[in-house]
Amino acid sequence: MADSLELAFALNNAAPEQIWDVIVVGGGPAGATAALYLARADLKTLVIDRGLTAGALGLTGRIANYPGVPEEISGAELLYRMRQQAERFGATFLQDKVQSVDLESDPKLVFANTGTYSARVAVIATGSMGRSQRVKGEDELLGRGVSYCATCDGAFFRGQEVAVAGNTDEAIEEALFLTRFASRVHFLCPTPQLKAPEHLVHELTAQPNVKLYLGATLREILGTDQVTGVRVNLRSEGEIVLPVSGVFVYLQGGRPITDFLGGQLPLSETGCLQVDAEFRTALPGVYAVGDVLCNHIKQAVVAAAEGASAAMSIEKVLRRRKQIAVDWSK
Amino acid sequence: MSNPTQPRVVIFTTPTCAFCHAAKAYFRQKGIRFTEVDVSRDPAAARDMVRRSGQQGVPVIDIGGQIVVGFDKARINALLGIKS
Questions:
Q1: How many domains does chain A have?
Q2: Angle CA(A225)–CA(A227)–CA(A231) in degrees, nearest 5?
Q3: Residue after which a domain boundary falls, among A223, A249, A275
């Protein structure tokens, strides 16, 4: 074993990665609009986002009151258009989950599953669909069969049965990754339908080792030292127990998503981030926009406006202007 | 500067693991020499890691025989004598 450990010493000195002007965590209407304005101001902008349907707008079935979009379209379609518009100005979108950040270092460090990303400025736009409560057994068995990252931990479940709980494109992508390792993937969708693009749903259901359960609520994760099963309530059949050794959880709730900040920014009593009139948080170079803020009207147009305002404030700081530039195209 | 008497540090990782990146960045920042084992490419090492730690998740860090689960900075600091 000792020899094989020494031989494994390879990935130790990765080349220094590029430093972005701005990293936006979250690609909903606030984050995508911030990216659109930042990229248009010629700032190198990276948006890290978990998936098109991982947030409130992407999950919305129909939008009819977004100004300038008279036709009724899905939230995912509207968001896709926003992202395309930002990409046209040069913004980069990365589908990944940010797990941790170091906001006091210079440059700021953002730790995602695919790597570490650095930027002069960070924008927190993670929305408010975080989970508020855990399933029984989840905390006790975390790391002992319970995981929030298939791409991190999937390799431990070779030839074993696992469960995935969720209904978004993020949950489906993770389940598809697990099909490479697990003998069977039980996909527990809490809603009557999956909330993801059609092609992803087809890809999931076409996998021979995936069993999809619609209207399936994860009630309890069973086991003492290791996961031995899950107790699931099915709308159609009542309660069942599935004998799995891994559970990957991608469920949502109604709390602002701030856990990845590790207490580096102050939160309100209700768990929301706090900012000033220019969307600056308590830490220099760190901004927050959208539903992750307090006392907020949860509308895409409001979140988008906040993204634009923050972007203009950031541009002023990075370009050392005294005042916000009204129009960068001039 | 690296400490010539530091305990042997082995970190079990997968390529797509944010806290593995964070832990490695921290070791580099503090000048800690470490050995990395990518368990996604080495099923035997994955089994060995589960046996030694009881964990089916990464990172797991072995510091001089003491197992640290996750990127637990306080415990790492204590085992390596790093002043925060």
A1: 2
A2: 130
A3: A249
